[in-house]
Structure to design on (143 residues):
């Protein structure tokens, strides 16, 4: 097997993959290009053994599945981190107690709003808007 040819082919595959992936991680495309280059430049008198080829294909499959799992987990985590008004709609009509650095109090939630990315509970009978994170007690009122 001509090692310099195979090495330059692998380097070319790695270089083109590096351009596509800024993290310099060995991705699916680079792995597949390396595998194809290796197969093109193998010695016909001593071809790649079946067990080695199967092992490399298993590694490729594992890499692909891990990549897909990583994408899914990243999407899941990002969606868990962001709250929306709909997530707290059940608070409307409930009695809440709240505490913050600026004060404390209680009241009935009449509406929810969002200001600068912070969710606020608007209380009946006043212009008080309480950050959701400041609520320490929630009680369902009969009515």
């Amino acid at each position: 097997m001509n090692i310099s040819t195979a090495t330059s082919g692998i380097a070319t595959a790695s270089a083109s993959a590096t351009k596509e992936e800024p993290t310099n991680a060995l991705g699916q495309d680079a792995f597949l290009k390396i595998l194809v280059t290796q197969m093109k430049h193998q010695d016909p008198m001593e071809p790649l053994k079946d067990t080695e080829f199967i092992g490399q294909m298993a590694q490729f499959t594992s890499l692909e599945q891990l990549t897909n799992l990583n994408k899914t987990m990243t999407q899941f985590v990002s969606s868990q981190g962001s709250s929306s008004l709909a997530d707290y709609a059940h608070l409307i009509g409930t009695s809440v107690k709240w505490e913050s650095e600026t004060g404390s109090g209680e009241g009935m939630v009449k509406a929810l709003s969002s200001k600068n990315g912070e969710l606020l509970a608007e209380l009946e009978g006043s212009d008080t808007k309480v950050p959701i994170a400041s609520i320490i007690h929630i009680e369902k009122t009969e009515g």
Observations:
- The two ends are 84 Å apart (CA to CA).
- The mean pLDDT is 77.
- The first helix runs from residue 3 to 20.
